[in-house]
Amino acid sequence: MSETSPPQANNPYIVGRPVERETLYGRDDVFRFVYDTLASSQQNAVVLYGQRRSGKTSILRELPHRLPAEKFCFTFFDLQGQAKLDLAEVLFNLAGAIADTLQLEPLNKQDFQGDKDYFRKNFLPVVWQKLANRRLLLLFDEFEVPSESADKEIKNKAEQEFYPYMRDLLDKEKRLSFVFVVGRRIDDLAHWVKRVFKEAQYKKLACCNKQRPLT
Question: Is there a domain that residue 210 lies in?
């Protein structure tokens, strides 16, 4: 991969709800970390974690403006609430977001429901053909970790289906790259969630200092 520096931008940064680019300060250390990690052929996943108002979503949405478009195609996907859905429905929703990004033909939900591996066996080859030499970078917001008090069915579904499938994608689909944002400390994650991130690189995001913008 090229060692060319990602484009720089001078934008203000604020915390709270996700903000537009013109009100976002540069977090050059974070963007450099993501770029350097994903530029390596040996790495395809980054985990950004921090407290609720550390600007995770805003940083995630800024990444397409900071990483080279000739190397990556970016798809933003909000995972909030997805853990309670069947795996086939989650993958259909994810494929829909990717298809919108690449302006692919409309998808048939029944294809995904009939084969849990349709996403990888049938959908991704179409994506690779469209992307040519670029990598698909999935920007996963609100990577949901069911709490101990969560409904048992939701926890079982996440543990037995969603997280193992994500682990498999990270292992086997090397043209896929991932940036996850997590609202918990890594040490607080369940062991079966940590397995998803086994080979990922981690970056903690600090909360905003009220006296000055984050840098």
Answer: no
